[in-house]
């Protein structure tokens, strides 16, 4: 099938590449010309495991192409996926300017039937907006071409995006047009071969499902973080509590890890945007307001531990930092909890030597003026003469370090662990002072 994907970010690139993998003829558009140039030279603007090889394979087979030519991209696919950003406005609502621009592009150039599939995370009612924008353009052009608008939110996780897309646990399809529904069922058939995982519904319910899913997941995390903070004071161990509650199938084991707060490009903005939608409709989402509040506080939990341990005086101290990205297996620094810590430590006059397996270049890009922050070549390399190590991302490579070597390198054997990677008793035996989240200190 001929498919156009508008937007070559995390969602657009993964969508385009996975669709090409099953033999579709995919053209991916971006208005960021430098991104398209890089992709056309064989580069990949983001780090996502497995993506580079998959793009290479599908480009070589001419099933995947990249362009910044809008007219060409609209002409190409009967199916036009919109996968552009929906960042937060200052008031927390979703900024729809990129979605509207994409709809305008389609309306200005389409001449035949198109199915416009919105993959971006958008507030309920956006489907109607997209339809109105395209209809207005067609009217201006005096054209009577028919089209359908579909809401098909994306649930992939960064770091596991290809697997999530190739083996989705569900495909939510808000679609009220039979031809469009048939086309999309055919497009997605190879992805849901063994199970019927396509959930067909109306557009508004599909749009809301996306926010509801992220709100539910963010709520679990914030609740676990608050329980961890309580466990610490009560002398309980959140890791044991987690296992104890996860065994209940109504709760389940996933997404129960206490840490330094959720970050990334989606939970923070989507939790805000859903509240904003509710407010605009005269409803208060009190639980979600608390989730957001708790998460902001959690991002400073490690800071409080550091302040307490060093009696508040951090000027002139030197810290080693393991992990910059908001989660492992990505270079995404959007809303990464490490940024809150870095900003604080530098403002206090401390210095930092940081290491992350893939996010250091991106970190440098988003924090260009962070004097006092330098990057090291490996986890051990940043430990030298540090007063403490702080772990902010649970990369696999950090899980089984050589503690004896670490002790020799650090000037004080102190670890603040925002991801509970180690066993407190074992670390005590190794001679470390260890500060995890929600566990014995
Ligand atoms: P991104 O910022 O990585 O990429 C968006 C891309 O769209 C950019 O490259 C930008 O240049 C391009 N763009 C903007 N306007 C355009 C236009 N008119 N025409 C063509 N290209 C245009 O964003 P992302 O992380 O891929 O997120 C995209 C959407 O998907 C958001 O709504 C997000 O909430 C949602 N989402 C993201 C994830 C994720 O893990 N990142 C997962 C599920 C859903
Ligand atoms: C999240 C959702 O998991 C995806 O389903 C969704 O498609 C995506 O948002 C989106 O809408 O963009 P993502 O942000 O890539 O995916 O990463 P997650 O694995 O969900 O992690 C989000 C944050 O929560 C990270 O900072 C992570 O460290 C934190 N987290 C996650 C915890 O603190 N504890 C956990 O148990 C799980």
TrEMBL record:
It catalyses: UDP-alpha-D-glucose + 2 NAD(+) + H2O = UDP-alpha-D-glucuronate + 2 NADH + 3 H(+). NAD(+) binds at residues 30, 35, 86, 121, 158, 269, 334. Residues 320-424 form the UDP-glucose/GDP-mannose dehydrogenase C-terminal domain. Its EC number is 1.1.1.22. The active site is at residue 266. Keywords: NAD, Oxidoreductase. Pathway: Nucleotide-sugar biosynthesis; UDP-alpha-D-glucuronate biosynthesis; UDP-alpha-D-glucuronate from UDP-alpha-D-glucose: step 1/1. It comes from the Bacteria. One of its GO terms (molecular function) is UDP-glucose 6-dehydrogenase activity. Pfam families: UDPG_MGDP_dh (PF00984), UDPG_MGDP_dh_C (PF03720), UDPG_MGDP_dh_N (PF03721). One of its GO terms (biological process) is polysaccharide biosynthetic process. NCBIfam families: NDP-sugDHase. Belongs to the UDP-glucose/GDP-mannose dehydrogenase family. This is UDP-glucose 6-dehydrogenase. It comes from Deefgea piscis.
């Amino acid at each position: 099938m001929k498919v156009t994907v508008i937007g070559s970010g995390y969602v657009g690139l993964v969508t385009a590449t996975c669709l090409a993998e099953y033999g579709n003829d995919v053209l991916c558009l971006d208005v960021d010309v430098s991104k398209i140039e890089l992709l056309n030279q064989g580069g990949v603007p983001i780090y996502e495991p497995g993506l580079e090889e998959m793009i290479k394979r599908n480009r070589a087979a001419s099933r995947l192409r990249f362009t910044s030519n809008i007219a060409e991209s609209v002409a190409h696919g009967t199916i036009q996926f919109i996968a552009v950003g929906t960042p937060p406005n200052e008031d927390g609502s979703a900024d729809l300017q990129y979605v509207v621009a994409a709809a305008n592009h389609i309306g200005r150039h389409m001449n035949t039937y198109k199915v416009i599939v919105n993959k971006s995370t958008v507030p309920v009612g956006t489907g109607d907006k997209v339809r109105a924008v395209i209809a207005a353009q067609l009217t201006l052009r005096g054209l009577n071409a028919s089209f359908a608008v579909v809401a098909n939110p994306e649930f992939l996780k960064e770091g596991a995006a290809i697997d999530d897309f190739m083996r989705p646990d569900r495909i939510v399809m808000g679609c009220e047009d039979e031809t469009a529904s048939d086309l999309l069922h055919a497009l997605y058939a190879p992805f849901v071969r063994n199970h019927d995982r396509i959930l067909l519904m109306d557009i508004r319910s599909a749009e809301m499902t996306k926010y509801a899913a992220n709100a539910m997941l963010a709520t679990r995390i914030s609740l676990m973080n608050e329980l961890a903070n309580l466990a610490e004071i009560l002398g309980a161990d959140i890791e044991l509590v987690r296992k104890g509650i996860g065994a209940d199938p109504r709760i389940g084991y996933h997404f129960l890890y206490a840490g330094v707060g959720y970050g990334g490009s989606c939970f923070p903005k989507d939790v805000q945007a859903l509240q904003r939608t509710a407010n605009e409709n005269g409803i208060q989402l009190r639980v979600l307001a608390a989730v957001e509040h708790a998460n902001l506080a959690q991002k400073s939990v490690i800071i409080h531990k550091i302040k307490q341990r060093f009696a508040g005086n951090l000027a002139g101290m030197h810290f080693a930092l393991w992990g910059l990205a908001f989660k492992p297996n990505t270079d995404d620094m959007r809303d990464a909890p490490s940024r809150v810590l870095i900003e604080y430590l530098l403002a206090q006059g401390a210095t930092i030597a940081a290491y992350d397996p893939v996010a250091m270049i991106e970190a440098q890009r988003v924090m260009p003026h962070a004097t006092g922050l330098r990057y090291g070549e490996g986890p051990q390399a940043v430990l030298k003469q540090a007063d403490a190590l702080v772990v902010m991302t649970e990369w696999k490579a950090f899980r089984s370090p050589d503690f004896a070597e670490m002790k020799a390198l650090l000037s004080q054997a102190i670890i603040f662990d925002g991801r509970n990677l180690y066993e407190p008793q074992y670390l005590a035996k190794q001679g470390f002072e260890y500060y995890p989240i929600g566990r014995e200190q």
